[in-house]
Amino acid sequence: MKLSVSWRASAAAAVATATLLTGGSIADAAPRAEALAAAPDIPVAGVKAHLTQLQSIATANGGNRAHGRPGYKASLDYVKAKLDAAGYTTSIQQFTSSGRTGYNLIADWPGGDTNQVVMAGSHLDSVSSGPGINDNGSGSAAVLETALAVSRAGYHPTKHLRFAWWGAEELGLVGSRYYVNNLSSTNRAKISGYLNFDMIGSPNPGYFVYDDDPAIEKTFKDYYAGLGVATEIETEGDGRSDHAPFKSAGVPVGGLFTGASRTKTAAQVAKWGGTAGQSFDRCYHSSCDTTSNINDTALDRNSDAVAYAVWELSE
Predict the structure, then answer these.
(1) Using N-to-C axis directions, what is the helix angle for 139-153 and 70-85, rounded to 10°?
(2) How far is it, in rounded angstroms, from Cα 27 to Cα 52?
(3) What is the pLDDT of residues 64-112, one digit of tens each?
(4) Are 285 and 237 in contact (CB under 8 A)?
């Protein structure tokens, strides 16, 4: 950011129960339960394997994966190779910022109605002071593993799926803004929703949901209600990540966040655990944002939430 199967059964039951309590019927609840079961469990080991690779890339390239540096391009090449092997149509969009060349990576899954595009994205660049494993290897790895899960499942959604990894977010949302600004008004209108994932494995995590598009917000809240985990509205990063250019262009947006430099309160500890009086991520924009700076539970939950939302919103 600038600056398991068993739970699915429980989640489906929880949604059905909530529907009945609010005057609905089992028939009303059934489609929702089926949707919950449709999204695969995203193996956190797979997500962490990508983070290990991003850490190795940073280590081999001056300790970072920043815009215009070798570590960024190596990160992009790693993600692209995975997607190409999984059957995606990938494209690289090039731009210039601060005198250096930057890149966005766009991956389209074949099929689906291209007049209704569901996008999920994350920024792939780090700051120059560290490897950026939580910010934003965590979002990048979860989106990648979800894209690979689409391929493994042979998923054929009604809507068209597109995934994106943005460059130069840390310099002011440069890559995502370049992408949005270079879309025709017609193609912009075809994007039915953009989901953003920036910092989803903070070591002292909170569970924050963007309150932008109501339908997308509800999708994420339903997921967490199924887990029995309370959420709060995301405010720390509002307008500071790659959803902002989409929102400004009139595209419905939403996303998840586990916190950056703000301090976790005692009330939040009562809901989520962790340490009061400490930042959600003490290594935010620092050299210690390494693979040791990840909360596995938060990463696991949010990676599953990425897949849940992708399946739910693209049906």
Answers:
(1) 20
(2) 45
(3) 999 999 999 999 999 999 999 999 999 999 999 999 999 999 999 999 9
(4) no
Using alpha carbons, list the distances in angstroms from residue 29 to 11, 124, 227: 12, 38, 17
Q: What is the chain's alpha carbon radius of gyration, rounded to the nearest angstrom?
A: 18
Instruction: Please give the pLDDT value at position 2.
Output: 58
* Reported pTM: 0.90
Report DSSP letters for 288-302, one per residue: T-STTS--HHHHHHH
| Residue 169 annotated as catalytic | yes
* DSSP bridge pairs for 103: 94
Burial 148-176 (b: 16+ CB within 10 A, else e): bbbeeeebebebbbbbbbbbbbbbebbbb
Strands 208-209 and 253-257: antiparallel
Reduce the DSSP state of residue 128 to 3 states and report it. coil
Res 19: pLDDT: 36
Summarised one tens digit per residue, pLDDT across range 249-292 is 999 999 999 999 999 999 999 999 999 999 999 999 999 999 99
pLDDT given at position 238: 85
Residue recorded with tokens 């912009």: 188
Question: Of 34, 145, 169, 312, which one is the catalytic site residue?
Answer: 169
Whether the CB-CB separation of 131 and 54 falls below 8 Å is answered with yes
| CA distance linking residue 154 with residue 145, whole number of Å | 14
Coil, strand, or helix at residue 106? Answer: strand
Question: Which single residue is written with the structure tokens 């399946």?
Answer: 311
CB 171 within 8 A of CB 67: yes
SS3 230: coil
Joined tokens for residue 313: 């919103």
Angle at 220 between CA 199 and CA 171, to 5 degrees: 30
Are residues 248 and 191 in contact, defined by beta-carbon separation less than 8 angstroms?
A: no
Is 138 in contact with 294 (CB distance < 8 Å)?
yes
